[in-house]
Amino acid sequence: MEIRWLEDFIALAKTRHFSRAADEQNVTQPTFSRRIKLLEEEMRVTLIDRNTLPLSLTPAGEVFLQSAELITRQLKDTKERCQEIRKQEESQVRFVTTQTLFLSAYKEVIAPFCDQMGLELDINMKSSSWLGIDFVNSLMDQQCDVMLCYWHPAINFIRALDDEHYEHLVIAEETLIPCSATNESGEPKFTLPGAKRKPLPYIGYYENSFLQPVIHHHLQRQRDIPQLQTLSENYHSVSIKAMVKEGYGIGWIPKRLMLDTLNYGKVALAGEENWHIPLEIRLYRSRFNQNPNVMQFWEALKQQCRR
């Protein structure tokens, strides 16, 4: 049974005339009559009394009219709600980022900018548990509109976005800084580069995270070889920060995430500036994404970054 058959029947019940009902439905009368006949065959009952003038509904037709009106009304309401959902989704920008960047750069830079524009971001909080490559795949598979992430030449998996199909904005500069809890004198408990006989307990990142390859790349290029013994590995900088604050070891943490803690004096820098690692915070998007809200967001943010 087709929905248009129900609409035909409702039009016929209202006009009580095949020709006028056909005109109302914008079809020829033979086509209209055939569809009414198909409806009756589907229901296995006569719905129209064709022996009266004007036409009248049979008792079965009267019952069927109530259901037809209910079904078409519900379908119309459902279509309208679905369209509202579609428009709402189109008005949003699907956004993914790491837990660390959500707590720092997003709240500092992206959120105030969106508030100023009156734009709503649809933030996928599930992304806080993703591996590094998952973010790249999400953008490439069009599961998100924009991706905020760290960038460094040593992050191999992000090179897939060097393709001409993608573009990026440098939102901010960041620095990974080595941190340690302080002792009673306010000095760091652990200081780079450490000693062979007593390596420093190291709280690092998993290999498939954004930041572990960056740290590994930087340490390999230092004149003094750091003496580190891995105590634990984590995906999130906030987890490393918590363990560093408790005095378990040394860890490299984004500076934006550590500023308040450093000011309190319970955590200190665990090395000179040569142990600091510069990063970029980038926002990526696909050039194929022609969502007008994404385009507006991107162009406005581009202008702000230039300023």
Describe the structure.
With 307 residues, the protein is α/β, with parallel strands linked by helices. It has 10 helices and 11 strands. The longest helix has 33 residues, at 59-91. Among the domains are: 3-89, Arc Repressor Mutant, subunit A (Orthogonal Bundle), CATH 1.10.10.10; 173-279, 3-Layer(aba) Sandwich (D-Maltodextrin-Binding Protein, domain 2). It has helices at 3-15, 18-24, 29-43, 59-91, 99-117, 132-140, 212-220, 237-245, 255-264, 292-306, and strands spanning 48-49, 56-57, 93-97, 121-123, 146-151, 166-181, 200-205, 228-234, 251-254, 267-269, 277-286. Helix 1 (3-15) crosses helix 2 and helix 2 (18-24) packs across helix 3.
Could you tell me the strand content as a percent range? 15-25%
Structural class: alpha/beta
| Helix content class | 40-55%
The CATH architecture name of the domain at 173-279 reads 3-Layer(aba) Sandwich
How would you sum up the global shape?
rod-shaped
Annotate the secondary structure layout.
Elements: H1 3-15, H2 18-24, H3 29-43, E1 48-49, E2 56-57, H4 59-91, E3 93-97, H5 99-117, E4 121-123, H6 132-140, E5 146-151, E6 166-181, E7 200-205, H7 212-220, E8 228-234, H8 237-245, E9 251-254, H9 255-264, E10 267-269, E11 277-286, H10 292-306
Parallel strand pairs: 3-4, 3-5, 7-8
Antiparallel strand pairs: 1-2, 5-11, 6-9, 6-10, 6-11
Give a concise summary.
The chain is an alpha/beta fold.
Key structural traits:
single chain; 307 residues; alpha/beta; Arc Repressor Mutant, subunit A; D-Maltodextrin-Binding Protein, domain 2; seven-stranded mixed β-sheet; two-stranded antiparallel ribbon; 10 helices; 11 strands; 45% helix; rod-shaped
